[in-house]
Amino acid sequence: IRNLLDEINNRISHDERVDLMAHVSGENLASLSSIAGIPLPATGPFKVSGRLEGALKALRIEQADARLTSDDYQLTATGTVGNLNSLSDIELETAVSGENLINFGQLLDIPLPETGPYKISGRIKGAYNAIQLEQADARCSFDDYRLSATGAVGNLNTLGGMNLDVAVSGENLVAFGQL
To answer: What does the pLDDT look like over 142-169, one tens digit per residue?
Structure first.
């Protein structure tokens, strides 16, 4: 893939436009880290497709469709990334589900609590360094407890600007504090 990208770069000036359908799949997203130029997390099998458009210095991806799977989680994302170089103008419908949030936290390299089954969906918007989550719908369980949250998070990187409606149910709220 790296040779193909270098060849495209050598043949096309940075001002010429590209319009190309791309399909990439593999067994571990981390194997693409050197091509992407950024560290990518270790995953299970993945498939990514989309239409690359624009000048090389401002390439965007339309009709993006990404799917990551592992024994611990399933993640899907569809939509656009307006500028691949700066990872900005992102608009992706996302969904992730799995058996334990702690495993998904390891993918993101952030600490998440140990839970039972969970499902989170919403629209991710903005730039990589200040990503927002809109139309969020999150549900998880922990022992005999259930948690649901709907709303938005203004900045997922800092968890700032939260506007969430949260509901918790269970037998003993004190024990829920473990989550």
So the answer is: 888 899 999 999 988 888 899 999 998 8
